[in-house]
Amino acid sequence: xxxxxxxxxxxxxxxxxxxxxxxxxxxxxxxxxxxxxxxxxxxxxxxxxxxxxxxxxxxxxxxxxxxxxxxxxxxxxxxxxxxxxxxxxxxxxxxxxxxxxxxxxxxxxxxxxxxxxxxxxxxxxxxxxxxxxxxxxxxxxxxxxxxxxxxxxxxxxxxxxxxxxxxxxxxxxxxxxxxxxxxxxx
Length: 186
Description:
By secondary structure, this protein is α+β, with helices and mostly antiparallel strands. Helices cover 33% and strands 17% of the residues. The protein folds into 2 domains: 9-61, no CATH class; 76-154, Outer membrane lipoprotein wza domain like (Outer membrane lipoprotein wza fold like, Roll). The chain is built from 5 helices and 7 strands; from the N terminus they run ααββββαββαβα. The protein has a 5-stranded mixed sheet, covered by helices on one side. Strands 1-2 form a two-stranded antiparallel ribbon. The longest helix is centred in the C-terminal third of the chain and has 29 residues, at 156-184. The relative contact order is 0.10. Residues 6-43 and 51-73 have low confidence and may be disordered.
């Protein structure tokens, strides 16, 4: 007589052994795992320390990102656009300087022109061009105000490469059209 097939365990076999039996659903795999509450076992104390610190200081946690033990807290918004790795809006509790905001955005891309960064002040809508390389050499710091916008432009080489791609595509299309017209005309 055949034995009935055994049901598979609820635990996903791809998960590390530390995730096997705590009864908490793992957000990524849907299997049982303690990581949602305390990170993997080595990171649990770090999360608890963050939560205690946040509660003691009186700051509310808006979100604790999955897999990241950095709590998100509300603060003033600052905006960065252009040639940075993660453009967007960033919140800081204290007013950051220009370098801190660019660092929070993942730093400049290889195509960034750091000699022509534009700062738009939220208070009076003035535009200021900043040479970050000269600032760094002189040790200067530009503090930002809430709502300020930073735009990191593209380098001339990036614009040249982009323009060259467009011209190359146009020449390829023109060559194709001429070839078809010569083929049809025979």
